């Protein structure tokens, strides 16, 4: 890859993030002028820096409703894309994404327990907490099954698929036993939605994403080794089984947190890493941070579509990502076949 | 002598036949969907497609509202536990009533229904699609069980009277049904007559359906149900132009942008559905202090940030089940009193509800159906 290309891609990523966030803050069910949007943001970040010539209502729309949602979309998009990029190496499967290994299904199961059966026993954090615990349980189950049946990439995938089936069956049972009137919330959650974003909640995904991202970037060279195959990686002196287990655990925890706050959003983790590799090559020193950046852009824009296409109805963002991602994937496959 | 016995037997037989005919004569009734159904009335055995249908059955037969019920759905105990407990205390036999699952979505165990030998099954109109898709009407018709639809929810203000008349006919309580309809119309006129005369400015009202029931914000009503009640009570329903049907959701941004003058949140004790939820637990004999605390907590959500209604304390909680029973006129009066306190200073919705209980219902009245953020409790 030419020397200037990574810098160009990084600049492009930052520019796109800025554009996506601007669009996310500026557009919505209620019309708010761009000047007001940035006035509110500037005033909140640096109080007194601009003259306040907007209503309290508009300020609330921008700061309390849109901004936390855009930030959550950026965090979740980044998290899912990074997880996808790493899992595609860990499992040596180009179709791997955060939902492949049962973690999302476990998270969904936990969320359903909260939504239909326990209620908000810990307040607004109940659903994310239960979803994370469900994801954690699924992660533990996958690791246990993999240890029991052999630690290869294939075994990891098969274990994940098996755990996903069990978790999905359990979820369906819980839905069947639950109140039909609350099922709407469950469906919305399972299809993915960012409408519940609030400032106090954002600390958890932000912190987990930051720590995971730093750790994964520091391990990027080892991930490159793993991408060459188990034998080559072992020849390079990498502890393949342990590294795979570590990477899976970190990505599973990251997925768990993202799923906990957004529900199950598909295709971001599958599509974005492929697009990034198409332009940035296969060095994970570049792939991981760029996947995070473009994942953010993708989900912020998808969420923007979700809340404006059918306004005032809030469409689940998973519908948008699935639709666009599916078409994009078909184009990607056909392009590769032609190439 | 033989002729005497023949005559006596013939007379007795004729009288028995006439009495049977008087007891149950075939009658063609029209349900709220316009279906013409032939039923032997008055009916002796009824299956209720929803447990909360007891709200209207009780208004027609205050002495023994459950005497004809042979099966029902289990929703009353979950959706309105206080009312269920009160009925259970007065009529302990209801604990043994056969329970159906799934009747809310129009599906139920048809074998169980047939085994109970009902004279009629009463279903809510919102079950119609699922009931028809499952072919229940045809299947039941083959074994001589008619099914009728009533509606106190979808187009409640339009369909309450025909539904009550239909049920009055089925139960052989036509006069009670007419008395109820008259009482209801009188009570609604106490609001509409004043509004027609005064023509006040209509405050903008946002009705949140089952606020706090789930984390989502915000469910509301379109042109019907509570949305229509608000309009009758002299308000402008904020979600009318946003929600095409009876029920739907509104984006938090739109609530803030619309800046409603008043907010009305429907609530109930939904501990069985959402344990420890943020719902506002108003209803039969409810703890209004706790309901008010929860109502205040709901005003702190992003969707209600800085809106007029919150600033002025015009945020109210109302019993959700008014959306699903013939007592909506009480809700109309209470909403009118909230929206136009000066115009309706003399109107007492609590007294109206009390009178409804005294005249038509088997239970004594217990307050707890309404609460406001600014109430001194």
UniProtKB/TrEMBL annotation, chain A:
Pfam families: FecCD. One of its GO terms (molecular function) is transmembrane transporter activity. It is a multi-pass membrane protein. The keyword Transcription does not apply. GO terms for cellular component: plasma membrane. Keywords: Cell membrane, Membrane, Transmembrane, Transmembrane helix, Transport. Belongs to the binding-protein-dependent transport system permease family. FecCD subfamily. This is ABC transporter permease.
UniProtKB/TrEMBL annotation, chain B:
InterPro entries: ABC_Transporter_SBP, ABC_transptr_periplasmic_BD. Keywords: Signal. Residues 1-23 form the signal peptide. It holds the Pfam family Peripla_BP_2. The keyword Signal applies. Residues 45-347 form the Fe/B12 periplasmic-binding domain. This is ABC transporter substrate-binding protein. It comes from Xaviernesmea oryzae. The lineage of its organism: Bacteria, Pseudomonadati, Pseudomonadota, Alphaproteobacteria, Hyphomicrobiales.
């Amino acid at each position: 890859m030419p020397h200037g290309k990574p810098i160009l891609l990084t600049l492009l990523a930052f520019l796109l993030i800025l554009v996506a966030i601007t669009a996310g803050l500026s557009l919505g069910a209620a019309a708010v002028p761009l000047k007001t949007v940035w006035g509110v943001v500037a005033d909140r970040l640096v109080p007194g820096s601009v003259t306040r010539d907007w209503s309290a209502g508009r300020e609330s729309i921008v700061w309390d409703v849109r901004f936390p949602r855009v930030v959550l979309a950026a965090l979740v998009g980044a998290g899912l894309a990074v997880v996808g990029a790493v899992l595609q190496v860990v499992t040596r499967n180009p179709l791997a994404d955060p939902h492949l290994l049962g973690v999302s299904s476990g998270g969904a199961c936990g969320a359903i327990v909260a939504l239909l059966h326990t209620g908000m026993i810990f307040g607004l954090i109940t659903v994310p907490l239960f979803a994370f615990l469900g994801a954690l349980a699924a992660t533990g189950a996958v690791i246990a099954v993999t240890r029991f049946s052999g630690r290869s990439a294939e075994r990891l995938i098969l274990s994940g698929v098996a755990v996903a089936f069990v978790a999905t069956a359990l979820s369906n049972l819980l839905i069947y036993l639950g109140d039909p009137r609350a099922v709407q919330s469950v469906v919305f959650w399972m299809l993915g939605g960012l409408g519940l974003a609030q400032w106090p909640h954002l600390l958890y995904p932000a912190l987990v994403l930051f720590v995971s991202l730093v750790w994964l970037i520091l391990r990027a060279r080892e991930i490159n080794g793993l991408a060459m195959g188990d034998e080559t990686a072992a020849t390079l002196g990498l502890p393949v089984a342990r590294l795979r287990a570590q990477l899976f655990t970190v990505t599973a925890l990251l997925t768990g947190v993202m799923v906990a706050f957004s529900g199950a959003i598909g295709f971001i983790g599958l599509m974005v890493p492929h697009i990034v590799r198409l332009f940035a090559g296969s060095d994970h020193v570049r792939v991981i941070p760029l996947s995070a950046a473009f994942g953010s852009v993708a989900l912020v824009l998808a969420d923007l579509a979700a809340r404006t296409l059918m306004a005032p109805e809030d469409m689940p963002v998973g519908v948008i990502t699935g639709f666009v991602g599916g078409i994009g994937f078909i184009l990607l496959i056909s392009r590769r076949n032609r190439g | 002598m033989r002729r005497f016995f023949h005559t006596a037997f013939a007379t007795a037989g004729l009288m028995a036949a006439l009495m049977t005919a008087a007891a149950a004569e075939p009658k063609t009734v029209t349900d709220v969907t316009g279906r013409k159904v032939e039923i032997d009335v008055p009916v002796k055995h009824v299956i209720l497609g929803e447990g909360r249908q007891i709200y209207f059955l009780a208004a027609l037969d205050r002495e023994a509202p459950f005497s004809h019920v042979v099966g029902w759905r289990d929703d009353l105990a979950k959706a309105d536990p206080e009312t269920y407990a009160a009925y259970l205390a007065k009529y302990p036999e209801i604990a043994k009533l056969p329970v159906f699952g799934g009747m809310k979505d129009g599906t139920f165990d048809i074998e169980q229904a047939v085994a109970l030998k009902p004279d009629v099954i009463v279903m809510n109109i919102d079950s119609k699609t699922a009931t028809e898709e499952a072919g229940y009407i045809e299947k039941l018709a083959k074994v001589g069980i008619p099914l009728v639809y009533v509606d106190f929810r979808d187009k409640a203000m339009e369909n309450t009277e025909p539904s009550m008349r239909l049920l009055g006919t089925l139960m052989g309580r036509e006069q009670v049904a007419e008395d109820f309809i008259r009482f209801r119309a009188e009570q609604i006129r106490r609001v509409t007559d004043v509004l027609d005369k005064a023509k006040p400015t209509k405050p903008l009202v946002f009705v949140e359906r089952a606020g706090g029931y789930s984390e989502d914000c915000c469910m509301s009503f379109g042109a019907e149900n509570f949305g229509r009640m608000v309009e009758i009570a002299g308000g402008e329903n904020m979600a009318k132009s946003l929600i095409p049907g009876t029920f739907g959701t509104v984006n938090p941004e739109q609530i803030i942008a619309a800046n409603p003058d008043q907010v009305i949140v429907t609530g109930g004790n939904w501990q069985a559905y959402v344990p420890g939820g943020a719902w506002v637990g108003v209803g039969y004999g409810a703890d209004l202090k706790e309901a008010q605390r929860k109502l205040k907590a709901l005003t702190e959500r992003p969707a209600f940030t800085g809106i007029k209604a919150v600033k002025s304390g015009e945020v109210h909680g109302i019993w959700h089940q008014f959306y699903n029973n013939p007592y909506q006129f009480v809700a109309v009066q209470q909403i009118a009193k909230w929206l136009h306190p000066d115009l309706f200073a003399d109107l007492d919705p609590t007294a109206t509800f009390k009178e409804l209980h005294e005249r038509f219902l088997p239970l004594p009245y217990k307050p707890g159906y309404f609460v406001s953020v600014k109430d001194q409790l």
